[in-house]
Known about the structure:
Radius of gyration: 16 Å
Mean pLDDT: 95
CATH topology: Rossmann fold
Low-confidence stretches: none
Number of strands: 8
Structural class: alpha/beta
Number of helices: 6
Amino acid sequence: MADRIMFRTNGTATPGYLARPARPGPGVIVIQEWWGLVPQIEHVADRLAEEGFVALAPDLYHGQSTTSPDQAGKLMMSLRIDEAARDLAAAIDYLAALPEVIAPKVGTMGFCMGGALSLFAACRNPEVGAAVVFYGGHPNVQPDLKSLEAPVLGIFAGKDTFVTPQMVAGLDSQLTQLGKRHTFHTYAGATHAFFNEERPEVYDPAAAADAWAKSIAFLRRELKA
C-alpha cells in the first residue's frame, strides 16, 4: 500500500511518497536522483515495502521534476542544502514516529545526488542506523564524517565519470582513517546510474540485482527491530 503524503518541516509542508509493507517493519528514507521524485524512485520505495520496510521518499524539489538532463542539473544545483537537510530531518522524524515502524533507528538509501544526501543525513541525524549510498555525489554536499555513527554501504560503478573511482577511494580512505564502519562494492563494468531501470543506456540488470540484494541484506542486518 502506498500514499502520497505531506509532513511538516519548520512550519511548512513537504510532500512525499510513503510505501507500507503488509506488516510492521523497519523504516527507510529513499532519496531521489537529480530528476526529482519521479516514478522510478517511487518504485524503489514500493520494492522496499515488498521486502518488509516502511519506505518514505521525501520530495526535496517540492513538486518539481524533469526528464531533461540540463533541467535536472539546474534543479540539483539550485537545491538549498540547508533546506534539504531540514526536509530530511523532518522526514526521518515523521517516519520513525509511524506506529508501523518498529525498529529503533531508520535507514537511508539514496541515488546519485540522493546518495550524497544519504550519507549527509546519516552524519547529521543520530536516528539513522544504516546508510546506503548508490554512487553518491553532489558538489555542494559535504558530510561531516566525524559525526557519522551509522554503518555505510557504498555501491559504485567502475566506469563512473561523475563519481570517479578516485573519489570513491578518497572517501574510503577518509572513513577508514576515522574508524567508521563501512563496506564499498564497485561494479567494474558498470557506469553511473546503473541501477535506474528507466535509463536503458546505462542500466545494468546484473549489477543492479546484486546491489539490491546486498542493500536489502545490509538494511535487514543493521535495522533489526
